[in-house]
Amino acid sequence: MDREWTFKIPYLGSRPTHWAIKHLPEGFTFDSHEGIIRGKASSRIVFEFEISAANESGADSCIWQVEVSRYNGLAPVMGWSTRWLKEKEINEQTILDVADAMQSKGLVAAGYNHIIIESHWQTSVRDSDGRIKADPLRFPNGIKHLADELHRRGMRLGLSSNASPLNVHGLSGSFEKEAIDAATFSEWGVDFIKYDYCCSPPISIVAQQRYGAMGRALAATGRPPFFSVCEWGELMPWSWGITVRAGSWRTSFDIQDKWKAGRYSKRDNGIWDAAMINLRYAQHANRGRAISDPDLLLIGSPSNGCTAEEYHAQMQMWAMMRAPLVFAADPRSVSAEAVALLTHPDLIAVDQDASFRNIVEERRADGTHLWTRQLTKGTAVLVVNAGESPTTTSIASRPDSSSAWDVSRAAYVPPSDLGRIVLSPHAARLFVFE
């Protein structure tokens, strides 16, 4: 594999002024100024290290477990997507400005270290050697320069490509060019590939062949990026995603800024629709140590199609499902309230927990759904009011826990408080029993 690897230590609050680290494996170094681990591994390794940080407000320490492998780690990807940007804004300077905004607002420190350019980074024609080309007007210094700039900031670059000769915008895809494109992505230092299925035959065996070709090509480079299958669930990628070397796969069509579609349509998913579809198939990902992807976080949406409670519910449900935490609101102008929700430390901790245990769901007569998931240390319990009226419900306390941590209220609650939980429509409450 022999791939280069970077990991920026996430933190919340004021920037640490002092870092210390113990137990890094051979070949890895720590940049104590930026809080970034760098190294190279020739094969998959899993290691634990102890990290401590301090500033004028105090000090803290913890033990982290990380994996260096073709999957880029044990945890779901966190980052930002260009999907909501206007086409004319997709260019090198915008991406670097967004990266700086993500750093200044604490998003990178919280773990949002990927920037994923979904389209319009490439041209519609290839160079004389058949290589895919970056748009010289949008990216005058090339994609490698952009990747290097993001890596210098402790961030990672993602690009989209397509399992057909051209994507839906008429720009270059990678069908029958998988090997040369994978080698190009590797040379550029790309860390994440979102592989779409636009303009491709809606036949399962064809999809498996096309995704398999790209998965093998990426693996053969020696520096395989995270491989995200974006087939939208039509051809059941959860049943074959592992065989094509996918790190994650989408389970439904692009999410819309609404709680629920008025009438179900596979192309009209709201938050609740995407969550229910993803929950149904997440077990396949967990068995293969991959990620089941219900699509973007809508938090910070400029259209405000959902209520504040619905956006909070989405963040809690995505965390419970170990879903990728990728948002599309413009980091340069996103509200402080949206940033606070995106960087909520307890929700991120639940999402990034290394346990691959499936959620156990209970659907209740009062219209609530109870999700339970075993964490590496403790149990997370989420209750969601899927109905259209306020309701009062309860959850059972755990015999091995004297109290539960109420994530929404950032406080411990005694067992007696769990017997009466009032939820407005589409609201959720997440508790962690330690």
TrEMBL record:
Family matches, as Pfam families: Melibiase_2 (PF16499)
Gene Ontology biological process terms from the UniProt entry: carbohydrate metabolic process; proteolysis
MF-aspect GO terms: alpha-galactosidase activity; cysteine-type peptidase activity
Catalyzed reactions per annotation: Hydrolysis of terminal, non-reducing alpha-D-galactose residues in alpha-D-galactosides, including galactose oligosaccharides, galactomannans and galactolipids
Record EC number: 3.2.1.22
Top-rank lineage group of the source organism: Bacteria
Keywords, comma-separated and alphabetical: Disulfide bond, Glycosidase, Hydrolase, Protease, Thiol protease, Virulence
InterPro entries xref list: Aldolase_TIM, GH, Glyco_hydro_27, Ig-like_fold
Gene3D superfamilies cross-referenced by the UniProt entry: Aldolase class I (3.20.20.70), Immunoglobulins (2.60.40.10)
Family assignment from sequence similarity: Belongs to the glycosyl hydrolase 27 family.
Name of the protein: Alpha-galactosidase
Phylogenetic lineage: Bacteria, Pseudomonadati, Bacteroidota, Bacteroidia, Bacteroidales
